[in-house]
Design a protein that fits this description.
Helix content: 40-55%
Oligomer: single chain
Largest sheet: 6 strands, parallel
Strand order of the largest sheet: 7-6-8-9-10-16
Strand content: 15-25%
Structural class: alpha/beta
């Protein structure tokens, strides 16, 4: 059995050669116990020659990856500088690019580096694989947007909560079954955003607002909750049958389904739609144009997301999630948690309000002739007060 000094030199040689070595491989190579290897690695790490990573050991590169805990000033406390931060997102094609850019901006401002990997929608096994890959890469904090429904997803969430590196959930929160799981979150108040959209339409004289969503996005669930809460809170007439799922724009059968929505709206006298997302709203306007239904003359449309709403014909009134700021917030939270050495870090659950962006697709002036008996003046006043309060509290 090699002596301690010899073992440690062999560990250093292996790490210099491979960059990162698993502890299990070192146990097999050295012919000693895992306890002995961990002790040697701890001594080397204390001397600043290596850094411990999840399941292994890597070279210490202080100038690039070793965080400076004295840190950089930040909104949630001093932030670690020069940290290597990992990020796992479900997509790099829609919604998420701005969030990623925001996180990159915040990490770069603290002289760190962001390393991003893409998982897949609602695939907890892939979420875990990508997180493990980043841990092996040596990241010191994680921003993750994992699946949150199903037994496997809950197992992954519990595992994330057990990691020794700071973990921030982005646009996610633990489900009710794991309500007390101590994971920090930074997310958009999507349900509240749906309520703001309904209230905006109410101030324009509408008392029935159909909700149009697709099945693909977890955001749809939050929008449905906020839409229903607004309908109930404002005392609007029953909205039975006005929660409508459609295929994504361009998917098989989309044109027929969108035509059906527009025809049904005309038959039921519904003159306002809240649509997730922009491409579906544009598709509905296109179908309406073919049927002689004008926007905003015959139908008001509010979109949720505002990726391309300004370029629509007519330009779309939109609820705009603060995606770039969300990425900044999540990264700042991770860096502050990494720098905290008090042992008293409180769990943070941060929500950003989306902004209401008024354009042409739902008109701008109330239409008194559209008011129904149920639309009392105090109801309109409550909606207006909520919108004004939202404008004051929305992050800019």
């Amino acid at each position: 059995m090699p002596l301690a000094a010899e073992r440690q030199e062999m560990i250093l040689a292996a790490v210099r050669k491979h960059g990162m070595v698993r502890l299990s491989d070192l146990v097999a190579q050295l012919g000693v116990t895992a306890v002995t290897v961990r002790r040697d690695v701890t001594l080397l790490a204390d001397r600043g020659l290596v850094q411990r990573v999840h399941g292994g050991v890597a070279l210490a590169h202080r100038s690039q990856t070793q965080p400076m805990r004295e840190g950089v000033p930040g909104p949630y406390g001093p932030m670690a500088a020069r940290a290597l931060v990992g990020m796992v997102v479900p997509s790099v094609e829609y919604y998420w690019p701005q969030v990623i850019q925001g996180a990159h901006t915040a990490v770069a401002a603290a002289e760190g580096r962001l390393v991003m990997r893409a998982s897949r929608w609602e695939d907890p096994a892939e979420d875990r694989r990508q997180v493990n890959a980043l841990l092996e890469r040596g990241v010191q904090a994680l921003l993750v947007a994992p699946a949150t429904t199903g037994d496997t997803a809950m197992e992954v969430l519990r595992w994330l909560g057990s990691l020794t590196v700071p973990v921030i959930l982005v646009e996610r929160r633990p489900p009710r079954e794991l309500l007390t799981l101590a994971l920090d979150t930074a997310r958009t108040a999507h349900a509240l955003g749906a309520g703001l959209a309904v209230r905006h339409l109410v101030t324009l004289g509408h008392d029935r607002v159909a909700l149009i969503t697709t099945r693909q996005s977890p955001t749809s669930r939050a929008l449905r909750t906020g839409w229903q809460e607004a309908v109930d809170t404002l005392g609007l007439p029953p909205h039975v049958g006005l929660d409508i799922e459609v295929p994504s724009y361009g998917a098989p059968g989309w044109a027929g389904a969108y035509t059906g929505v527009m025809e049904r709206s005309r038959e039921l006298g519904v003159r306002a739609l809240l649509v997730h997302s922009d491409r579906e709203a544009i598709g509905l306007i296109e179908r309406g144009r073919d049927l002689g239904i004008s926007v905003p003359g015959d139908l008001a449309v509010v979109t949720y997301d505002d990726e391309i709403g300004a370029a629509s014909d007519p330009p779309l009134t939109a609820l705009r999630p603060q995606k770039h700021r969300l990425g900044v917030t999540a990264a700042q939270l991770a860096l502050a948690k990494l720098a905290d050495i008090s042992g008293e870090w409180p769990v943070h659950r941060i929500e950003l309000w989306p902004n209401v962006v008024v354009r042409e697709s739902c008109g701008t002036a109330p239409r008194p002739e559209a008011l129904q008996p149920s639309m009392a003046p105090d109801l309109l006043a409550e909606a207006g007060q909520t919108l004004r309060a939202g404008s004051r509290r929305t992050p800019k």
